[in-house]
Give the backbone structure.
Amino acid sequence: MSIVLCDLDAWTLFASRAPLRRVPKEEAGRALERATCTTADAALVRDLPWRRELDGHVRVLAGAAPEDDVSVHLAVSEGKARHRAKGLVAHRMATPLAEGSLCSTEQGVLTVSPELYVLMRSRILSPASLAVVVSLLCGRYSPRFDDPSGTSVQCEPVASVASIRSFAKTCEGLWFSRTNVCRVLDCVADGSRSPMETALNVLLSLSARDGGYGLPKPALNSPIHLSRNEVFAMRGQRRCEIDFLWPDHGAGLEYDGGGHFDSREAMEQDRLRDALMKERGLDIVRWTWPMVSDEVAFDLKVRELARKLGAKVSTGPCCNRLVERRALRAFVLGRHLVW
């Protein structure tokens, strides 16, 4: 017998950034056939170290009260009878599985892979929510929603846009929203380091019909290695990372949060870096929270950026997607409680 996590429990495992090992296709198929979904399995999952550590995080995502038991989500093969028990949800999956569908953990528990997770969630999530999910899986941070201060843990990604796209091509027998997946993968970039980078990526690049501005997809946190003279000028700093970069258009965007400039020296360092990038043919613009939070100011900044990218955008009160635009702004600039 084996336990295969999915849905909220798979998402929690990904959030913990526990090491994952890809399970070969044949072994994964046999494991799913043996998979069980019992109250004893649910108790075992709740007692796993990473699950106990993130219990508060799970409760916030599930909208559960402190005294409630959060349901455990497990996958079983399609032929298994649906098991009904309090605090337990069984998800039946068809076999055979595509290569890369399951992963194993250090505790010996199996889970659907991040790539399969995205395809399964695409059945019910909107493009905006799915874009946030993909950004988190392919990003370099993991939020902790049970922390009132809204902190995030810096970590390595568990998937990439390329790996999700490649996996989707092999899943001909699995039903999922191909349209939503393609729309999202065309706009989401790897390497987001913060909720605001995720929000701006989604807002700028998602299509107009989904509330976005439809700008070309940027590269996030692209490293630019400096020459010897530039290293000297930057006081030993050997490379720069640009938050949002469109190298084909010679344009970049830096988001300066509220605590970005801790000192005048840091401000001068950033100005020097912008000047060095200008010498390389990169025009870097800087946005702040007051610019982003003000709808009118943000529209003006996006129009300015769009001109640099040679793109056309629809902004202002005459925008024919104003309702969708405002709904997307409210969603991505708030807490991303999606899984």
Observations:
- The mean pLDDT is 89.
- Residues 215-312 form one domain.
- Residues 264-279 form the longest helix (16 residues).
